[in-house]
Design a protein that fits this description.
heterodimer, A: mainly alpha, Arc Repressor Mutant, subunit A, 5 helices, 3 strands, 42% helix, elongated, B: alpha/beta, Rossmann fold, 7-stranded mixed beta sheet
Amino acid sequence: MSRPGRDDSPDRLYTLTGGRAHAAPDSPFDLVTLVVAECDPGPGLQSEHATILRLTQLPTAVVELAAELKLPVGITKILLSDLLAAGRVSARHPRRTAASGVPDPDVLEQVLVGLRNL
Amino acid sequence: MDSATSETRTPLGASADNGLKIVIVGGFGVGKTTLVRSVSEIRPLNTEETMTRAGEAVDDISEVRDKKATTVAFDFGRITLDARNVLYLFGAPGQERFWFLWDRLFSGTLGAVVLVDTRRIDDSWYAIDRLEHHGTPFIVACNDFGGPTYAPRQIREALDLDPHVPLLDCDARSRASGKQVLITLVEHVKKQYAGSAQVSPVPEELTL
């Protein structure tokens, strides 16, 4: 399996992102932000953008998109930022309690219930 | 292989709206991917992140060309917990360069499992030190490789493990065992945050 970030020419990544090598520091995307397409992949879209819209007909995490696209996470976030800015996708971010980053006790309980039901 | 990945995708339900993270840290060959696979609903996938040696994001693509950047690859799997919550399990290499990416990749993680091969206990020191540094709740799970068994006390001593950190044996190939590891971690996380809310604030996240 080829891994573009490492083995391919960086030129492909350069072309994909217009020279941007990583998402802005305030990128809203977490590894597990769930992305949902808000439109169909129409003609004229960059092929990676079209692929993302195809993959996100149902919610799909950023990290799964990166794996499917075989692109580094940072590059994937740039592509997603473009789509988000254009209103083509929406993002469901992980829920946190305030700024502390402490997980919501209710969510922890839901996780336990889910795991016990495995 | 490229097309097979997409064709065999198992999508989430339409109502999924909360992604959660648990990280499994351990040395090479300790069974991280095996553990992820045993509990994951999807075949483990692999992806990577790139960084400069200084741990900063690459600002200029020419740095990639000059090979100043380092790439860290990691595996992950997925467990749909209920209609809204989806848990992602990441198998992450414990080596030094990986920790530069911790904040970028794993901030907000529920907690971590340090997977230990008791024949190579020393491999785990660094991971435990870094998790303590980041204030990430964690447990230690010893993967059974059929080697000599040690008393928990011996392992705790060898790892210089805080008495509050749960330690358990597991068989990474077994779904039931992997499930127990995850439940132990989340119960520990719950206890830790319940305790820290009363006693002291949660450690601030430190950056390298």
